[in-house]
Amino acid sequence: MSDSENEVENMELRDSALIPLKEKTHRKDRMAMFPGEIGSHIIQPTRELLIKVGSGIIGAYSLIANEAGNIVAEPEKLVDEKELMEMTKTLRHQYIIQHRDFRDTGYDFREILKWGQIARSLTPEIILKAIKIKKLGGEPVGLLLPDNDRYSKMEWLDINSVGGQDHGTYIMDGNNEYLWNGGEAWLSAAERKWGYIIVDGKPHIRQHSAVKNLVNYRKVKALVNMYENEGLDVLTGVDAYLMLMRQSFKEDADPIDDSVTYTVLNPKNLHKESEIAFGVFGHDQIVLNVDNTYASDSALRVRAAVKVAILPPIENKQ
Predict the structure, then answer these.
(1) Which helix (H) or strand (E) is 304 found in, with range?
(2) Which is deepest, 18, 106, 138, 301, by most CB within 10 Å?
(3) pTM of this structure
(4) What is the pLDDT of residues 125-151, one digit of tens each?
């Protein structure tokens, strides 16, 4: 481990960088590992991720009602614990790179979201979804989301430009929340908090043959449905995209969407007659622009994502 990584370890990972599965698994996740262990407290058919602790196996189970009305668990797909731990290590490595970048470019490290807090929030279900992105051919990337607005992020990116960023970030109609914030209202400074999301950070996502001949609107809706059917969300809003662009520079010195593809940033709230908000890297700058819904662009992509609800920090007891 490098000196810089040790520094982050000592500053921020005191409550453990990788939380063991046994510590991380809550009682509600352990209560129904096998049919014989399902208690009467499960009162309706549901679907949950259940953990077989200590066996080295993570299992996805369906909880269903049999003919007698009893709830039974049936294993569906098993994931080796090693795969889950490797994904967690990958996300932690990405965190270290981002933490170092924020610290070196003026952020107060004491305000940056701590890895221990993120790690406690990474439930096995979330990690399995990140693994699903990988199994679908993507590259899961965990992103820190600072508690400032898009203009502050853009200014930070431009002042601390890296790689081929020779010009400032361009944004079309930057105050339009429909385009750049998934249609959600603008948050005040007091309402903003640090966040974390996992997205597909593959530089150039391949085009799915099923949407090749569709117009843009239908492409977007088909891709959103495809990911949702896999249990995944999609990247929405410019804030996460800007952080993904920065991470791609720092990790590989090769920006995502380098003119070959572009990422749709309002996929879930897109209407047939509205404009498509997208991000791309072209002409030596980050470009946030709009496209129409009725054309058929081969460059159009939608990125899979996994939202992470951050647990509150553990209070120090005196």
Answers:
(1) strand 304-307
(2) 301
(3) 0.78
(4) 999 999 999 999 999 999 999 999 999
